[in-house]
Amino acid sequence: MDKDFWIKLKSQLLDFLLEIGPAFIFAIVVFILGIFLIKVLMRMLKSALKKSNTELSLKTFVESFSVFLFYGFLFFIIGSILGIETTSFIAIFGAAGIAIGLALQGSLSNFAGGILILVFKPFQVGDLIHVNNNLGFVEKIDILYTRIKTFDGRIITMPNGNVSNSDVDNRTMEKFRRIDLDLKFSFDSDIDELRRVIINGMGKHPKLARHLPVDVWLDEIGEYQMKIKARSWVESVEYWPAYWEQLEAVKKELDKEGIKIPIPKHAIYKED
After folding, report:
1. How far lies 77's CA from each of 23, 45, 210, in Å?
2. Distance of CA 260 to the CA centre of its chain
3. N- or C-end of the chain: fewer Cβ atoms within 10 A?
């Protein structure tokens, strides 16, 4: 290559830098200031949401969505500074949006699922739910995922798309929940006596819902024993502690009255 080519190339490069350089430097400054401003705005938004009566599940969703909006607006401004026309900028983002949308169909489904969860409210942050074979308290609902914390301390992250299309068992939506105890006794046990003893044991629980019944009924007559169903009501948030305590209370009351839970027996006959 001759010397004139390199001189021409150098001249064109210098002209390009002189033309684009100031705008590029200005874009960098705007980007840095924009990031700082977004952090300030997010702090203000979180503070405002914290002081408001907005539901916790909606707060987390708004925070996540606001980050995407702020950064999208910042990139739009930087594109304008660099000389990208608005129509071209929209066309670029539109094409990129289509490509990203095809690549991230699952994420778009999760976003739509998050909207459905917030609108129809099958559960909220703090609720105890059973979904997709997972049981736990809802810790967070953001724009793409729902996080629950199980009783053994595990955090499970589930896509909103899957959650919104699944059967959700919300176990704390209602204030009160019924405890069902399945107990088995021999056929020679007196049902009325069993009812008195079991109700007496369950009725001592301090967090029992006194306005709702404690009842005991014969539920099933089996081949070797009869099954008794004992039921009481407590506040939903107290269900599991109350369940175990009620089970212990019934066992202690049966022991006190000398009533034994039957042990399976097999009769063996010897032929002469």
Report:
1. 12, 21, 63
2. 43
3. C
Question: Would you say residue 206 has pLDDT above 80?
Answer: yes
187 contacts: CB under 8 Å, gap ≥ 6? 225, 226
Please indicate, yes or no, if residue 162 is contained in any of the structural domains: yes
Distance of CA 71 to the CA centre of its chain: 26
Same domain, yes or no, for 14 and 87? yes
Say how far apart CA 93 and CA 100 lie, in whole Å: 10
Domain that holds residue 87: 3-103
The answer to whether residue 229 is domain-embedded is: yes
Last residue of one domain, picked from the residues 46, 69, 103: 103
Angle between helix 56-81 and 3-51 (nearest 10): 160
User: Burial letters for 14-28: b for 16+ Cβ neighbours within 10 Å, e otherwise?
Assistant: eeeeeeeeeeeeebe
For residue 80, which amino acid is it? Answer: S
Q: Share the mean pLDDT of the chain.
A: 81
Instruction: Out of 65-79, 109-123, 158-172, 206-220, pick the least confident.
Output: 65-79
Write the single-letter amino acid at 19. Answer: E
Both 184 and 245 in one domain: the answer is yes
Specify if 53 maps to a domain.
Answer: yes
For residues 203 and 186, what is the distance between their CA atoms, to the nearest angstrom?
A: 24
Is the entire prediction scored with pTM above 0.85? Answer: no
How does DSSP assign 217-251, residue by residue? EEEEE-SS-EEEEEEEEEEGGGHHHHHHHHHHHHH
- Virtual CA dihedral for 32, 36, 37, 38, nearest 10 degrees? 100
Q: Which amino acid is at 135?
A: L
216: helix, strand or coil: strand
